[in-house]
Amino acid sequence: MKDEDIAARWEEFFTDSRNRHRITEIADLYPEKKSLDVNYSDIESFDFELAEFFLDSSYKAIFMAEKVIEKLTPPESKVSIHFRVKNLPKDSKIEIRDLRSKHLGNFIAVEGLVRKATEVRPRMVDAVFECKRCGVIIKEVQDGLIFKEPLECYKEQGGCLRTAASTKFRLLNDVSQFVDTQKIEIQESPEGLRGGAQPQRLVAYTEDDLTGKISPGDRIIINGSLRSTQKKTYPVKSTLFEIFLDINSIELEEHEFEEVPISSEDEEKIIKMSKDPDIYRKITASISPTIYGMTVEKEALALQLFGGVAKIMPDGTHIRGDIHIFLIGDPGTAKSQLLRYISELAPRGIYASGKSSSAAGLTAAAVKDEFGEGRWTLEAGALVLADKGVACVDELDKMSPQDRSSMHEAMEQQRISIAKAGITATLQSRCAVLGAANPKYGRFDTTQYLGQQINIPIALLSRFDLIFTITDVPDSEKDYLIAEHILKSHTIGGINRHIKETGLEIDEEKEEIPSYTEPYLDRDFFRKYVAYAKRVFPVMTKEASDALRDYYTSIRKQGEPEGSSVPITARQLEAFVRLSEASARIRLSDRVQEDDAKRAIRIVEYYLRKVAGEEGRFDIDIIESGTSQSQRERIRTLRRIIKDLAEGGGPVEHEDIIAEAEAVGIERSKAESIIKRLHNEEGWLIESRIGSKKYRVVQGVT
């Protein structure tokens, strides 16, 4: 296409009444607004040939379009409006790992996650020089990343024709023209990677009004021209070139999980599945079916995948909708397997092991490298990469206290405040956290509370909506079923591998293997189902609200007598709401019904009975403070007994303490546990002689 033809077509396109009006409006608002945004489909419907030319020769097409726009603006306005094109067709969206030399110069769309972003800095676009011999002013256009100086004092500009070897040129910064620019690096989204593939990255540049709008952790689609620059291998030039994207427009994701492709057939299948009355059982059974039992735990994990609704109150307060779950259990109870399965099942899942993760790896790291031209830049960590997804953190108890403390803000406020290397920033971490840990002493001790058995601060523990203890207790009937399940799962796995490797059937009958080793919903469809359900925002009905309120108030009444324990707090009520909304999302319902509320109550009650139940009542202090109300009473009573026995200042016999404790109704096992705590943890008691069963009260210790 000739230049005159291109200009004529653009002029016809922009003189359309709607586009002409938008150009005038932008000229009036300039410089607050500098860009005319156009959908590619509008250009295609107007002139298919022009649209095709735009994709193949974007630089020329954009240059000609902006010339026409400048012509259509009032001369007195002196504005420079950018022409930006969005919403490219699917065949123009290229994965980072699929970029090839044939795409150079083409206008493409690339989707990914922002990994790094530099500060906004000026870039010279028109350099003005002065010839030191004759004083002539020379203008040199800077159209690339490498600074260009005049080769000679140009005759066209009235110069003396001396070359750069025989004269010097002085750069005039004051009259040269600059434009704001920012360098970013995006990487492939983690949900598109499976099998441990290393995410590939792409460098891109934004200019003018697009700068400063992107932060590490953002999920974006960038549209622009793919360019190349020669690798620097001094003193010789290399034949290898680096690629980068010259960004023309940016699209921030408006809907969650847009990157998960859902066809019309998938949508039809999802809607049909949501109306199945047995949908909850099928979804629960599709979570790690090779692990036997754990029905309630799997149901809770299913609800975590779907999540509640995040809300912004009229006063600006943000209430999270993500559900945090913590699994603590004996070794060999398949916790890590569950975490790994969920991370692969979630549309956006990140798996991290606490033992090999640092605070910087979880939140964000300040990195000094060539990318930022020697400056410090932020690199997003696991919790930021899992934004709007699920972050699975295994071995949470093995992390150092400093690293673990970085999770507090991320879990409750769902953002991460960074103050490193002179950079102060706030990154989004709107993700659900699924944590797992082992008890401090290897296995659970039924005589101790949860807080005493786990190497995790109570403040962090209380931020989890659900805490499940998974114990390994010998039970002949249950052990038989587990063994049967594991062995038959291994058998079907062995048969499938044998057939795959040899192509030969074996005598073992596959019909004998139970069908529950296969999920009802395969992983790809499950991920699509979750992604589709996340676009539903259910609202609480009066029946559901009444059910939650009545249950909450009835439990709270148990703590009304003065001196009683606090059964549950408002944190558990918010957990009820989140779980109820997730339950409604599974059905793709925009209303939270009473049955959803009852499901949430049943799951929370199940976890509280196991973790915070004592003498038939709930006591949330077991989780919130690590000590129950009744235990505090027993500790006070035992301290008083020991002080009375030690009134003369002498040592107190162990058996005398136990006898007095039993006399006032404290069981021997509980009394011994308290003595051990007062001696080992609080330092209130010391042995009068090492190895003896006599104690003295330490003076001055409260």
How many distinct folded domains? Answer: 5
- CATH H-level superfamily title of the largest domain: P-loop containing nucleotide triphosphate hydrolases
Principal-axes shape call? elongated
Task: Characterize the largest beta sheet: strand count, sense, and whether it forms a barrel.
Answer: 5 strands, mixed, barrel
The CATH topology of the largest domain is: Rossmann fold
**Text of the CATH class of the largest domain:** Alpha Beta
- Rg of Cα set: 33 Å
How large is the share of residues in beta strands? Answer: 15-25%
Uncertain runs: none
CATH architecture of the largest domain: 3-Layer(aba) Sandwich
Quote the distance from N terminus to C terminus: 89 Å
Mean pLDDT: 78
Neighbour order of strands in the largest sheet = 3-7-8-10-9
Task: Work out the helix count.
Answer: 24
Describe the structure.
The protein is α/β, with parallel strands linked by helices. It has five domains: about 5-85, mini-chromosome maintenance (MCM) complex, chain A, domain 1; about 100-250, Beta Barrel (OB fold (Dihydrolipoamide Acetyltransferase, E2P)), CATH 2.40.50.140; about 265-475, P-loop containing nucleotide triphosphate hydrolases (Rossmann fold); about 535-625, Helicase, Ruva Protein, domain 3, CATH 1.10.8; about 630-695, Arc Repressor Mutant, subunit A, CATH 1.10.10.10. Helix content is about 35%, strand content about 25%. The protein is built from 24 helices and 28 strands. A five-stranded mixed beta barrel has the order 3-7-8-10-9. A five-stranded parallel beta sheet has the order 14-17-20-13-21. Helix 4 (about 50-55) crosses helix 5 (about 60-70), helix 18 (about 540-555) packs antiparallel against helix 19 and helix 22 packs across helix 23 (about 655-665). It starts with a helix and ends in a 5-residue tail after the last strand.
